[in-house]
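Retro notes
What went well: the complex prediction finally ran end to end.
Inputs used:
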Amino acid sequence: MSDSAVADKAITEPTDPSMEPERHGGALVSRRFEQECLHPSRTDYLKVVAALKAEGYNQASDLCAVDYLTYEAGRDLPTGIEPERFEVVVNLLSHSLNQRIRIRVQVAADSPTLASLYDLYPGVEAMEREAYDLMGIIFTGHPDLTRILMPDGWEGHPLRKDYATGRIPVQFKGAPQPR
Amino acid sequence: MTATLNTETDSTTQSAAGEMESKPQELHLRSETAAPELARERGAVLRGVSERDAALDLNDYDIELGDETMIINMGPQHPSTHGVLRVMMELRGEQVLRTKPVIGYLHTGMEKTAETLTFNQGGTNVTRMDYLSPFCNELTFSLAVEKLLAVEIPERATWIRMLMAELNRMASHLLFQATNGMDLGAVGMMIYGWREREELLTFFEKVTGLRMNHNYIRPGGVAVDLPDGWQQDVLDICDLVEPRLDQYDTLLTGQPIYRDRTMGVGVITAEEAIALSATGPILRGTGVAWDLRKDQPYLFYDQVEFDVIVGTQGDAFDRYAIRLNEIRESARIVRQIVDLMPPGDYRSQNKKITPPPRSRIDESMEALIHHFKLMTEGFRVPAGEVYVATESPRGELGCYLVSDGGAKPYRMHWRGPSFVNLQSMPTMMQGAMIADAIAVISSVDPVLGEVDR
């Protein structure tokens, strides 16, 4: 199998442009590998997630952030969604429907804030803290948005693509200063 | 401490980040905690979803602020915290009022490291996360890569993966039996659990060359075929472990002291467990029969027979019993795999993904080139993103993988079940005695390598 054959197989089936784009709970839908993705705007985010919860998505499996700063391939977003530097990805699971759904919301680099899902799913508490700690996304309404993996007072957010690994020496709290 | 390294960070980020960083991630004194924050912080994570939350009203306890309660650290160097878990507790006498796990002591930036390793090398990284179930980690990572690649995996490779994942589940749960027993005073259990696990590790070593961190399951299949006589080895292990589990029953299940220490301890309801994103034995202990092997089958789990073990009370004893019986179910699956294992390839014959066998390199220029390219550059994975979840011994193990069409993941996010399950610990501990806290930590069975990554 050649490289291109591998690639062709994975690309999403093109949809008829004349058709009305598919929407779920008011958000544009894209599908890959039979996994459904919703693309709400930042303002609609909470509303869309709340609608999904009412639909039966009772557990937030996962929440993470991606920094698309140096992403070279085209972003596979549905038309109408403006790509931004950060993307917060939430994976919801419904036990009753036995289905997963993914929410990908674009977060601008100049104000990386997003509403917290804490009130809907308390289980995202640690995950949002992790996304804040490592990617610098600020979740408004989160009860305890502190660093979780890195030490307090660490500078920068290590998983960002412009975080210069090794540019500064490893920081430790209370380490003796060089004289 | 507000300055960030990022050139693009604006003033909003800095001020907001600075504000937050002035407040450390630890548990604070009641006198320093504002009332609404305290209400949210009860049990550190679970706020407003449980009846019990309301029940634990401060007024019920007649506490004078800063007078009778104290905040103590358990860990990070406490043997019962399974590694470097630090639990901060607010105590009133021996009663635990609030708990907060403070983690990150083992953080080595493995998600960042994953971005610098090729898809071929990625297995060596992820296998070190949950070091008690390395095969499950490699499996999840490989499944995610293969989904993006859209390659077919030979049947035998899939069966081998299932075999190793199930044996791994047995090994992991056996270690739980050992540490759980020791945490609760059944020190002999420590020796017995390790003894049985040793049999499994010996088999892993025979197959993969290593006892832990195998990098055996790789994108495209598995590294090597099973050794001759593996059927007998595996059946011997099952024959050995199953009667020993009955001995565990004698030693722990029916033992009054053990039952007293675990029954009704660390109770969590199904609603709480679901709300807190708990999976695995914690969720099943509350009576929710949710097992990805059964409900969203991957590999060939739909072709074998096994039962999903559920509890009724959601207490530490249920979680213990579930893990004990899951060893039996895993042994049952392993016995079926021995019968069902087909002949054939143990890895994909796609030359762009699988390196050629050593013997071919001497004869074929093309094989040499392929080998060189795969070993230096790695294979390219089509751009896209995918989330794959499997059932690890601790719960839902997820891998969110973003590829930009290169030979290395653009971003790899790991949904570690231990990391997420740790959130339910404060809920389980609320109002418990400090001695029960040990039972609770043990019953959550976190692996700190995966929590901190």
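What we learned: Confidence is low (pLDDT under 50) at residues 1-21, 42-56 of chain B.
What to try next: split runs per interface for comparison.
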